[in-house]
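Hi support team,

I submitted a single chain yesterday and got back a structure, but I'm not sure I'm reading the token output correctly. Could someone confirm the output below corresponds to the sequence I sent? I've pasted both exactly as they appear in my results page.

Thanks,
R.
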Amino acid sequence: MTDLVRVADCLRHNALGDGALFRDIHRGRFVYDASAGSWMEWQGHRWDTDVTDRALAAVEDVALAYADLEADLSERSAEAQAAGNTDDARRLQGARKKVEARVDRLRGTRGREDCLRFARTMQTDPLVVRGDVWDQDPDLLVCENGVLDLTTGAMRPGRTDDWNQKAAAVVWDESAACPTWERFLSESIGCPETVAFLQRAMGYGLTGHTHEQVFLLLSGEGRNGKGIFVETALSIMGQYAGPIQAEMLLDQGRGARNPAGPSPDIMSLRGRRLVVASESDEARRFSSSKLKWITGQDSLVGRNPNEKFQVTFLPTHLLILCTNNDPYAPADDFAFWERVRKVVWPFQFVHRPDPDNPRQKLRDDRLRSALANERPGILRWMVEGCLLWRGEGLNPPPPVMSAGDEYRRENDQIQDWIDECVGLSDGGETSSNDLYENFGAWWRKYHGARVPSIAWWGRRMSKKFERIKRGVYYYQGLFLTVETESLK
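Hi R., thanks for writing in. Yes, this is the structure output for that exact sequence:
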């Protein structure tokens, strides 16, 4: 029932009163995001952008409230006229006409726009929020049928003051199963320990926590299942997940971007729980600084092309990189290797597997549709992994750690040269000049490219061996086993 006293008070305050009445009627249904410059509408368990101007249409409810007041004034005027109170009847008719004019104005373009403007800009309790309120609780996951508490696995209805905007694209069903998914992972990876690690990692990826400071490198030749794995995860996590360009992680060999310019790639990370990049080209190089930045806990700064101001936000995502050819990373970059968790997908799924090739298996063309039907069960599997992660941590098993160690060794070009050309002894020493000359000859023979500088070489050698300085540096206990001339 309309509070006509309140409506009459709003009428006296002109457009400000219209905005106040809209606020009173629609608090909890609409709110204005000042950063994005758009109205948001409550959708039952979360807020969503009002892309169809439903807030503008809802100004009609303010007009209808005034129309109720108009009807009341008309009725009271008629009663006064019937009772012979002509002055009261005339006064009430005058008030009714003012209300009628307000209703007419609110049904015009200017009146509707002014109403919304005042609703979000009034001094007292406006319908407005800053853009940094959204999706701030890392342990809540919005599903199609409610909000999941990732600390317990329990579901509850969404609340407007959760300020959640993103949502997964699946219903929560704690009894759902995913036998096809579990069989797919077992056949694709072939190692129960690694599958269990992936379950914990994907459970961690459901949350907005980033303190593990790791990323997953899913490695292996094409048609091995890793694409289906991430495709399925993305489809389940919905707005919480998305792809990013691999260039955000790789050395692009060009100057830095304008720090004041638009950065939609960075803004695409905002509020994400899972981000996926794919890279298949050979001879690419990781940018250690980019990767440490994207997988760390430091604030990110970016600006969308249509926004005036930069936004600072904390990362909330787990990064997955899928690659057919592992990019180069410096073997001596401790921080990088602390972050990488490499999962090898060793098999290939083809239509006609070679019976003599144990790495080839029969492809199932119906797998994608089967996994789509199991999405509620796969979400349950991920939530179970989240609870396991809370109890055990990520706890990468030996196959994952050894894959990372092998990857690091493959990128250690200094060690390749040492293994081929340098011997170790308890006594003796060799000058840095002689060693570097030998290294340069070896590099030109096998890589045919510009030899790294002596400073680059020296930094990496000093991390491996002790050296002393007597005019030039001498490395203790090293001697050349291959003559430099023979490498030329």
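A quick pointer for reading it: The longest helix spans residues 59-82. Let us know if anything else looks off.

Best,
Support desk
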